[in-house]
Write a structure and sequence with these properties.
9% of the residues lie in helices and 41% in strands. The protein has 76 residues and is mainly beta.
Length: 76
């Protein structure tokens, strides 16, 4: 029988993947990314995405390009 508590905790251990726009490259290895969920500015490792383009950020690192689509919040 599996440990139910361990399975429950495993649901919450994954860190979120954020979407943002690269606004600046810093030094040789970091970028400032403005998140689309309210405009928070974070520093992420990586410079593989051009300034002005969207990217995915996970665990403080740019992991790849994100589509440049319109984001809409709908309250139900």
């Amino acid at each position: 029988m599996a440990n139910l508590w361990a399975e429950f905790q495993a649901l919450f251990t994954q860190s979120p993947t954020w979407i943002g726009t690269v606004v600046q490259h810093i030094g040789s290895d970091y970028s400032n990314v403005q998140l689309i969920n309210g405009g928070s500015l974070i520093r992420a490792k990586g410079q593989s995405i051009a300034i002005g383009q969207r990217c995915y950020v996970k665990d403080g690192e740019i992991i790849g390009p994100a589509p440049n689509i319109l984001v809409v919040d709908i309250i139900v």
